């Protein structure tokens, strides 16, 4: 029997993701890849894969899959209930599935995105060197649907075998370090304006976190001024005309015409990937 997983249920959104396709911004293609990179890397280590193997990113859990062959799986991200044929199995540990067994991921109480890794990795056809789904450019395998059969590669190593790994916390409030610029001079006292509490809105997605709060004010000299499009990177905090910032995540556009007031320090991005609507964010200049 060929090695594969059959998708039974997907929850709100389930996507194939690896570590992305950086280096194609000149083609207008975002880096994409797992939003919570440490979670995917950990899941792959637990099942014996290289850290960059493709897995499944499940928004708010709800993913159910049936193994068509013997395999090892692991679920990481926020703490979440995991069951095999209805029996509790646990997250953040390697779990064996025999052919025909079904794994179900519940809905996490905190955080947004769970990651499922399978020994051998999800072996769909890569595009531009990656198996990741890019929701902006619509590159990569489409969102999973019930009935999809996902081929698996050959197992590459021995599962990590850790007895337990503590899931990271997903607090209701985050302090996020940023580097000011390149257009912080467009705003009066940019550090102070950014330091107020911001609330993650329900309009956020893999392209970016949309925030609500007191509108950021441009300096008088910049009022109504237009900015030629320029390159933007993951973590850039762009400020559209309404003054409400957007934090670009992995599927962001590669250029933008609104000023970028600051850029999130890369180590803070995984926490933003797990920030639910309603989460409070405070930005602090990185020293």
UniProtKB/TrEMBL annotation:
<protein>
    <submittedName>
        <fullName>Biotin-dependent carboxyltransferase family protein</fullName>
    </submittedName>
</protein>
<keyword id="KW-0067">ATP-binding</keyword>
<keyword id="KW-0547">Nucleotide-binding</keyword>
<feature type="domain" description="Carboxyltransferase">
    <location>
        <begin position="26"/>
        <end position="287"/>
    </location>
</feature>
<dbReference type="InterPro" id="IPR029000">
    <property type="entry name" value="Cyclophilin-like_dom_sf"/>
</dbReference>
<dbReference type="Pfam" id="PF02626">
    <property type="entry name" value="CT_A_B"/>
</dbReference>
<keyword id="KW-0378">Hydrolase</keyword>
<dbReference type="InterPro" id="IPR052708">
    <property type="entry name" value="PxpC"/>
</dbReference>
<dbReference type="InterPro" id="IPR003778">
    <property type="entry name" value="CT_A_B"/>
</dbReference>
């Amino acid at each position: 029997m060929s090695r594969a997983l059959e998708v039974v249920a997907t929850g709100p959104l389930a996507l194939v993701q690896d570590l992305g396709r950086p280096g194609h911004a000149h083609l207008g293609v975002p880096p994409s890849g797992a939003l919570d990179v440490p979670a995917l890397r950990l899941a792959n280590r637990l099942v014996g894969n290289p850290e960059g193997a493709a897995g499944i990113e499940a928004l708010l859990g709800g993913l159910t899959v049936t193994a068509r062959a013997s395999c090892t799986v692991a679920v990481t991200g926020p703490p979440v209930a995991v069951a095999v044929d209805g029996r509790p199995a646990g997250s953040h540990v390697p779990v064996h599935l025999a052919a025909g067994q079904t794994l179900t991921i519940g809905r996490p109480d905190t955080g947004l995105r769970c990651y499922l890794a399978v020994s051998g990795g999800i072996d769909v056809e890569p595009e531009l060197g990656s198996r990741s789904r890019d929701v902006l450019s619509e590159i990569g395998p489409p969102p999973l649907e019930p009935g999809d059969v996902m081929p698996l590669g050959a197992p590459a190593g021995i599962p990590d075998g850790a007895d337990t790994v503590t899931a990271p916390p997903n607090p209701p409030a985050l302090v996020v370090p940023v580097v000011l610029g390149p257009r912080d001079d467009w705003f009066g006292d940019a550090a102070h304006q950014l330091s107020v509490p911001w609330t993650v809105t329900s309009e956020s997605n893999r392209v970016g976190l949309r925030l609500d709060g007191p509108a950021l004010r441009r300096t008088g000299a910049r009022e109504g001024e237009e900015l030629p499009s320029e390159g933007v990177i993951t973590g850039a905090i762009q400020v559209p005309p309404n003054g409400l910032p957007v934090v670009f995540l992995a599927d962001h556009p590669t250029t933008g015409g609104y000023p970028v007031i600051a850029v999130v320090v890369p180590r803070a991005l995984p926490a933003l990937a797990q920030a639910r609507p309603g989460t409070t964010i405070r930005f602090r200049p990185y020293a």
